[in-house]
Design goal:
Helix 3 runs antiparallel to helix 4. The protein has eight helices and two strands. With 228 residues, the protein is mainly α. It is globular.
Length: 228
Amino acid sequence: MSYFTKFELALWGISSLMIAAFFIIFDRSNYLTLAASLIGVTSLIFNAKGNPIGQVLMIVFSLIYGYISFTFSYYGEMITYLGMTMPMAIVALVSWLRNPYEGNKAEVRVNSIGRGETFLMSLLAAAVTAVFFFVLSYFNTANLLPSTLSVTTSFIAAYLTFRRSPYFALAYAANDIVLIVLWILASFENTRYLSVVVCFVAFLFNDVYGFVNWERIKKRQGSTAAVN
């Protein structure tokens, strides 16, 4: 337990309790949603530390969340997480394991990307968005526009995660906001999806903290490198 700070333990604990409470109030039947939410929020606290365990848990979360999305015809979410986020999490896991900070397998070496790569990433994101818009439209995806926007933010977040940039957490925070909107719309038809809304509200706070902590890690690693 000493691996995590008191704030990190409190953030994880409050997030988990909030998810469990809303599950009990609004769902009490779909335990797969509860499991996905708890696995997801746990992955984020490890990701905030730059620990590859977070990517392992994200792979498991993607599998379960893809199925949950299928149940509400959110084919964009299903295809995004099973066809992009999960494979990218596997690639990111390999990248993080291959780039430990000074041999410490529990902390990845933070990286930065330049303007040229940022421009390339933007072009790729635009291309992926265009392709997915027509694919999702063909499958009559519910709430098409926010579903397509979710693909864009997910792609950028997955790319930055693979490249070990602190901004991956901000990209996931943007994706969380889109998903909060998506599942609020879904909850209008079935209130049990409110537990999913709360899941992504918890994710939002964790991702914001993840960015803050990665910036701290980057500064510390830079200071150590300067000393060495």
